[in-house]
Design goal:
Shape: globular
Strand content: 5-15%
Distance between the termini: 8 Å
Order of helices and strands: HEHEHHEHEHHHEHHHHEHHE
Radius of gyration: 22 Å
Largest sheet: 5 strands, parallel
Structural class: alpha/beta
Number of domains: 2
Helix content: 40-55%
Number of helices: 14
Number of strands: 7
Strand order of the largest sheet: 4-3-2-1-7
């Protein structure tokens, strides 16, 4: 960690690099070094590596959940304290202003999606993380203690976990609504939001002109931006389905779950099997990258905007 800090210090002071820097902290490092790095980095991360303590003991016995969570808590406390100090003095140097993140390897150990998402939800709630990254396990050294995965890396599963993670962070869903011990894994054929809607048809159809923002967010095909646009647009005039399309609603999904002025777009049976068959005909339920087998794992920088395009990641 000392070499990481020295590199970071040189970048900021000698090279005068002012772009985005993401630093990966090392569990067990001197807390003083982590603190000093936090005043120079934009984001810091300590990788959780595997979803559970049992998985760590199995595949990474040299690591423990305690040594990983301890610096994570230190960074969280530092961020909170720094925000309070900034309220008193705006000239206070920022501490990890872009927050902290972590990463889990998926598929190397037998945890189900419910366990994985419950861990992620706990990290968001208890450690104030900005992002949890999920990496499909790729067996590169063919160790006998690792799964062989004859079908290759679980990329579609990784994709569903990211979709569910998005629902937690921006759509006000809870893990207990998406999964349970009786249904511990996501439907690989439908995205988590569509799957949830099909299992809760009692909430639909939703009337576009009267539903509140949070209710609109739960409609498949309506995203955060389009939900805000609907709420704003309906104040001035009545909306029809052509208006919704212009606003950005994905009607090929939403049409089964909404009404405009009390009418559905087409005569539709509110039946789970019927809607499911039609949704499965939508090829976008499985990303093009996966269909064409050119899928790229999500980068650590995919959720960060850079004004000048400059960024640095200092790894472990």
């Amino acid at each position: 960690m000392d070499l990481i800090y020295q590199t970071l210090y040189r970048l900021r002071t000698v090279c005068r690099f002012q772009g985005y820097i993401h630093v990966k902290a090392i569990p067990g490092a001197d807390p003083a070094l982590i603190e000093k790095a936090g005043f120079l980095a934009d984001r810091m991360s300590i990788n959780l590596e595997l979803p559970t303590s049992a998985a760590l003991r199995q595949l990474a016995p040299c690591k423990s959940r305690h040594t990983i969570l301890k610096p994570m808590r230190q960074i969280q406390n530092g961020i909170v304290q720094n925000k309070n100090e900034l309220m008193v003095c705006r000239k206070t140097p920022p501490f990890v202003p872009a927050g902290q993140s972590t990463q889990m390897i998926i598929g190397a150990t037998p945890e189900n999606d419910f366990q994985i998402m419950s861990v992620a939800e706990g990290l968001y709630q208890n450690f104030g993380l900005k992002r949890v990254f999920y990496s499909a396990f790729v067996n590169v050294n063919h160790n006998s203690s690792l799964p062989s995965l004859p079908g290759g890396p679980p990329l579609l599963r990784e994709h569903r976990l990211y979709q569910a993670d998005w629902l937690l962070r921006y759509y006000h869903f809870r893990v207990s609504e998406l999964l349970s011990e009786d249904k511990p894994n996501f439907n690989i054929y439908l995205d988590p939001k569509c799957d949830w809607a099909l299992r809760h048809l009692e909430y639909f159809p939703v009337e576009i002109h009267t539903a509140d923002y949070k209710t609109l967010l739960r409609v498949p095909g309506i995203g955060a931006k389009s939900a805000k646009r609907i709420v704003k647009a309906r104040r001035g005039s009545r909306l029809d389905f052509s208006d919704l399309k212009k606003i950005g609603v994905v009607l090929k999904r939403a049409l089964y779950f909404i009404t405009c002025s009390g009418r559905m777009m087409y005569p539709i049976k509110l039946n789970e099997d019927y809607i499911c068959r039609n949704l499965l005909s939508d090829r976008t339920q499985i990303p093009r990258e996966l269909r064409e087998e050119s899928y790229r794992q999500l980068s650590l920088f995919d959720d960060v905007s850079f004004g000048g395009g400059n960024h640095v990641c200092i790894p472990m």
